[in-house]
Amino acid sequence: MNLSRLPILSLSMVVLFASTQLVLAQPEDFEFEETDANMSILLMEQTLNGEDLLEGDWVGVITPDSICAGASVVTEEGEMLGLAAWRDDNPNNDEEEGGINGFRFGEELTFVVWERERDAEWETRITDIQEGKFNFEADGPTLVCSIVAFSAEDRPVIGIVGEDHDFDLVWI
Fold this sequence. Notes:
Layout: H1 6-24, E1 38-48, E2 51-52, E3 58-62, E4 68-73, E5 81-86, E6 110-115, E7 120-131, E8 143-149, E9 159-160, E10 170-171
Parallel strand pairs: 1-8
Antiparallel strand pairs: 1-2, 1-5, 3-4, 3-6, 6-7, 7-8, 9-10
């Protein structure tokens, strides 16, 4: 065994590990608490300005109280992305118990995209619901859908998304 190459190999492994951590580092706003129950979500497509999200971008699921209750990082461009929306395990919302930390039954799911390249968050719209519904139900059916996001400068004045032209999804 050639020991003279060992320090170079070790240094290469450290650099590779560190660079992977930088790419996949979780944004502070996307931190969440795992509780005792969740709702599974499968995002078939996730796009920003018409392009697939890139490796290192994040998708978070947000409660009506603006609490991140689940998030996942894109590890491969153009692939499906799974995440869990976690239930609030503090039904009385006691501040001493930590306050609200997840979704309550029936609350509407909202998704937010964090774009690594610009270090920016963008609103999304749910499109193409293939299965389930976008209201929280712990241990209920899996929501299978797609999401689209637009950065502020690329958002259309009027944009209709989805093949069925559902006017609930019109940006004005």
